[in-house]
Amino acid sequence: MTLKGLPRIPLFNVSIQQFSLMKKYFPSGLVILCVILLLIAYVYLKPKEGFECKPAELDTYIQSSEPTMVLFYADWCGHCTKLKPTWEQASKQANTDTTRMIKIDVGGKTPEHKELMKKYQIDGFPTILVFQNGTPAPYKGERTVDSFLQNIHLN
């Protein structure tokens, strides 16, 4: 048995010559891959200004001794859509060190949403509650950035 030509790696069907080309261009490919991974991480891991949590996670955020405002909203609600930019602007300032303003979508018809609405007596959207040590109180202030920040003692 005589071998002819360059050896091949049967698993990948790549010759030694092709492998040396991959080594030559690998660093630039690695840089491109790293850039893509960093962009993906930025999109998915960047802090959300209007921090949104899932119904199951809510209890972990409302047990603080500091006041925490929670916006219960529905995507399909027109009033909620109008309030969101104001909420986002205020939460951008409030959520610098800790999460002080949270929004949670409970407009679906899932059992989880219905249970949360019943627990906190939410019968309309948008509803804002202020939690301190896990105890809710209805928000009675104006729906402005300054009023939101004053209510959680940041102004």
Please give a structural write-up.
This protein is α+β, with helices and mostly antiparallel strands and 155 residues long. The protein contains five helices and six strands. The chain has two domains: 8-45; 55-151, Glutaredoxin (3-Layer(aba) Sandwich). The strands form two sheets. Strands 4-3-5-6 form a four-stranded mixed beta sheet, covered by helices on one side. Helix 3 crosses helix 5 (145-151). The termini are far apart.
Q: What gap, in angstroms, lies between the N and C termini? A: 86 Å
Helix content: 40-55%
Tally of domains: 2
- Roughly what fraction of the amino acids lie in strands? 15-25%
Q: Label the overall shape.
A: elongated
CATH class of the largest domain: Alpha Beta
What is the helix/strand order? EEHHEHEHEEH
CATH architecture assignment of the largest domain: 3-Layer(aba) Sandwich
Task: Kindly report the name of the CATH homologous superfamily of the largest domain.
Answer: Glutaredoxin
Report Rg.
Answer: 26 Å
Largest sheet: 4 strands, mixed
Q: Using DSSP, what is the number of strands?
A: 6
Average pLDDT: 79
Low-pLDDT parts are: none
